[in-house]
Amino acid sequence: MTRISLTVDGASVSDDVEPRMLLVQYLRERLGKTGTVIGCDTSNCGACTVHLNGTSVKSCNVLAVQADGAEVTTIEGLASDGRLHPVQEAFRECHGLQCGFCTPGMIMQSVALLQENPKPSEEEIRLGLEGNLCRCTGYHNIVRAVQHASGQGEEVTA
Amino acid sequence: MIPAQFDYIAPTSVEEALAALAEHGDDAKILAGGQSLLPVLRMRLNAPEVVIDLGRIDSMRGIRDDGDAIVIGAMTQHAVVGSDPLVAEHAALISKAVEHLADAQIRHRGTFGGALAHADPAGDLGAPTLALGAQFVIAGSGGTRTVAADDFFVDLFETAIGEDEILTEVRVPKHTGWGAHYEKFVRVAHQWPIVAVAAAVKVDGGTISEARVGLTNMGSTPLRARAVEEALAGQPATDEAVRSAAARAAEGANPPSDLNGDADYRRHLATVLTRRAVLAAAGS
Amino acid sequence: MTATVERPTEAKEIGRERRRKEDQRLITGRTRWTDNITLPGMLHMAMVRSPFAHAKITSIDTGAAAQATNVVAVLTGADLAETQGACINAWAITTDQVTPAHPPLPADRVTFAGEIVAVVVARSAAEARDAAELVDVSYDELPAALDLKEAAEATADNGGVLAHPDLGTNKSALWQFDSEQAGTGGSVDEAIDKARSEGIVIEREYRQQRLIPAFMEPRSVVVDPTGEQITMWSATQIPHILRFALAATTGVPESKIRVIAPDVGGGFGGKLQQTPEEMIAFAVARRLGKPVKYTETRSESLMSGHHGRDQWQTLTLAATKDGTVTGLKVDLLADLGSYVALVGGGVPVLGAFMFNAIYKFPAYQFNCQTVFTNKTWTDAYRGAGRPEATYAIERLMNELAAEVGMDPLEVREKNWIRHEEFPFTTVAGLEYDSGNYEAATARAKELFGYDELRAEQKRRRDSGDPVQLGIGVSTFTEMCGLAPSRVLGSLNYGAGGWEHASVRMLATGKVEVITGASAHGQGHETAFSQIVADRLGVAFEDVEILHGDTQISHKGLDTYGSRSLVVGGEAVVRAADKVIEKARPIAAHLLEASVDDLEFSGGRFSVKGTDQGMAIGEIATAVFAAHNLPDGVEPSIDSEATYDPVNFNFPHGTHLCAMEVDTETGALKMRKYVCVDDIGNIVNPLIVSGQVHGGLVQGIAQALWEEAVYDDSGTLVSGSFVDYLLPTAADTISFDIDHTTSPATTNSLGTKGVGEAGTIASTPAVVNAVVDAVRHLGINDIQMPCTPERVWKAINGAGGGGTADTEGAAMPHFDQAEPGQDSTEGAGQ
């Protein structure tokens, strides 16, 4: 067991963990942050994407012990003061989700993408989301949602 | 999805890391960015007893100008390399290859040295470092040694790094003013390249004075397309001349056959992608 | 042309782009996936799976695993014996279908790589996995039947390999339809003979590759045996059917089982199954008396969750020289894998009625042989039978067009059912209620810029451009809204096709609607709320949709086959209408008026010609108090309805796709995709757009990327997302979608199913485009998925058509040497 202390969604937490525990397992099983989910075992799907010290990472591809001392933000910490993050709002507005399983990772990556490139082109959005798989939406409305969140959205029409 | 148990060591200096490596030897596995190692551990394709995490060694991170070379710390994340102005100016081929390496999340976490030491022949960094004649700085208990790119890649997942050694930095000779392009062929974006070609060319007055061409996934290691390089030298940067030189791209290559294509198809791809990469690098 | 069904209430909600009620939870991570559930004392299971496609289990040594830290039990098939129940096949497609027993945890023989041979139960998932590595299973490897065509030919006598040697055959069932015998058309053999002498005969063999549904949420199951009922949470599309199967095969009374499908992360047919994992979890929880959980890894999911498609299609189309179709003969070989799954052989049969599609074939014959192999079982995947049929006919119509030298749209128009001919009884015996193929096609051509793209195609051909352009057409229809129970009965299906709904009027005026449909991403909560809000005249926000729990929704047949709206939605409409009728006498009583003087509109009963009235919510409150009700009237206006559809439902559409083919590399790039679907009246255009987009990409993915590939030993090569290629945002484009409207005449909302339409239509549109781009090079087929390698080889005459083999090897990125032997830094990409 290794002692780790970190900040998750603004709260300080400290636990003894096995070194083999993945960050995503720590979030889900120890902290009850079940908003972050596991979709694959090869780090292709991106469903587990969180922010680690301000940048997006796949939390299945980080050991909990590697996050010692870090600041982690999950989908559950994105809204502030009861107000949705603009990207969350945009996903709802543009119907950028269906089953919702990929959504936490998709939203977290979209937030990171817009931090790095506030006015991305459609192609830049598509490339920026290449590490996140969705099986429901065909990505069309996800791309619309990111455009919308960046202030570039056209009126949403079906 | 759950790795087997292991002990975890997080040294804060190269010396400590080497000591840990000396102590645990074969039982240890070094963790850099972890973007290839952790999937392997999760799927239990490997189960080291000890994992030595280099993530707390600050001296292994960063990029600096060292006269005739750019030096990239082995633990520098891809995203940092990809956005670094020094790299862009003096080793543009590296910037181009990093740009579409894996995906954004993995570029945030994965490291330059880790990817090279992993030595996946489909990895995006082998061909450009090979093409630019990079030098690999390897630390061991007896001090550091430098290995030329030509000698660094030994076989599939195998490099010149010894069992008790660590890759600490990579020196990339400056290719200031060279045109560069990394042409990557995939079926879907999140795939490793089926074949990719890294090309850097020096063009003087419409003539290619010198060319460096590296191939990704055309053998058990990244390869230099020397026949192409030789054929290009002194040639005009025209479609015709480049096409003729690029036809030799697969000479000496021994590409794999898998779900995405057989060896013959890969050989053919290498010629087309080489032509495109060189022309793009030459700006024509 | 068909008439619009008159709606008794004004549509304020229906047709509106309501944002989904479901989303608030999903975008903030306040979700309840099965794997999120943790119960006191809960144990975790890990599966030991066979690495062999076919082997006898000679011994299983569980000793070391049982001694491992915090292991509670290690159980084999012999241990669970009959307590494990069985995986059932609900649809014997013929009375003589050969159906091997399917124990969830077989004791003596494994029949595909990935089949479970033992289960380890421990206090944590990590410890269960650790101990699973210690279970020592000895196998006697047996020859494996792997190739579908070879398996179909194999017998005990000819030395062929049998998936189940004791059955003596790999053939499960031969299902046939012949229009001459059925009296729905003429003799197909005569039609073909005639065409051979004086017309055109197109003969083709197409491959429907094996696909994996690849829902994003891996399957997970939790079983809690404490309490009076055994409760199972499962990531399933079918809680009701699952409960029935659990009861029917374990002997536990149905009333003692509660199945809950909490948030379910996609299914696409892949969670339309009664799985071994669910059965084992149920048995283990009962045996140990403790809650247990099992969540599969993605690798396990790809390997052992059921697959889809996997057919060889031999097709003969007869036509006159002017391109008028005269007959169609379809011979299918369909790979079942090693068992007959829940729907199993019924999947290709669902396609039997759709090969004739929108065309007026005078003669039709369909023969489908289902075949066992030692591969993962197959069952429904989005479209289930209908994509296979649509692919075949839409590819053939392009071949016919090429043969007679017509534009592919013209040859279709020449043969399709004209809009004034509806309702139309097809050669397969179905009655299409409505449609307008002309309108959808005209609109699609306009949006696509069809003529301009054809001109560009010609320019590129003429100039020998290395990038060629192809235009693909698919004018599809499908049968959905499964299904009229009588029809299912006539097909020997084991259940009906009705759906149930109830409406509870709460004392505060809020409305709870219970549906037997079980959503897993479709947006039922929103769409059904819109329907009820209009029907009862209540606020959208005041309607709560409850589903997916057999204790709340005691009756239902779940969600698949684009049935939720057209069958489940109709049940909701009828239950709501019953509420109004039950409220009417009470309203009359309270308003001191005659029932005949009341009218119901906008949620209010009012007395004609006065300003007196009461809202339905006020009546609900009055009924709750029950102080002043008419004599003999029960204090409830809650109502329920079970709706059995009278017919299938026939959405259609015209899809146009432009593909660029890089002839130097075989690389493909989608340039434009237009679809105009006629799905009748639309409840929520936003939700419909999402269904269409997602459906399109799944169909496009079959055309271009996805394939479950096995090697010569029966190991799934495409066993992870590294090798089973799902497209990303970077591989797809924005789509141009629109709709024309011919309301369905068989339900009161005039709606048609939309869940599968995009998937069914898009695959042939894409492949037709790819073939169209290179047809001038002498190519008339490229096997799916159309990989760059196959395209390049087709162009260069090195195969790539119907016979190309896929190299049986995965990329080796995650094959690792032993620790410390070589390079030390295992990181990078």
TrEMBL record, chain A:
Protein name: (2Fe-2S)-binding protein
Residue span(s) of domain 2Fe-2S ferredoxin-type: 2-78
UniProt KW Iron keyword: yes
Domain of life assignment: Bacteria
UniProt keyword ATP-binding present: no
Pfam families in the cross-refs: Fer2, Fer2_2
Keyword terms of this UniProt record: 2Fe-2S, Iron, Iron-sulfur, Metal-binding, Oxidoreductase
TrEMBL record, chain B:
Organism superkingdom: Bacteria
UniProtKB keywords: FAD, Flavoprotein, Oxidoreductase
A Pfam family of this chain: CO_deh_flav_C
Cited InterPro entries: CO_DH_flav_C, CO_DH_flav_C_dom_sf, Diverse_Substr_Oxidored, FAD-bd_PCMH, FAD-bd_PCMH-like_sf, FAD-bd_PCMH_sub1, FAD-bd_PCMH_sub2, Mopterin_DH_FAD-bd
Domain named FAD-binding PCMH-type: residues: 1-177
Stored SUPFAM superfamilies: CO dehydrogenase flavoprotein C-terminal domain-like (SSF55447), FAD-binding/transporter-associated domain-like (SSF56176)
Full protein name: Xanthine dehydrogenase family protein subunit M
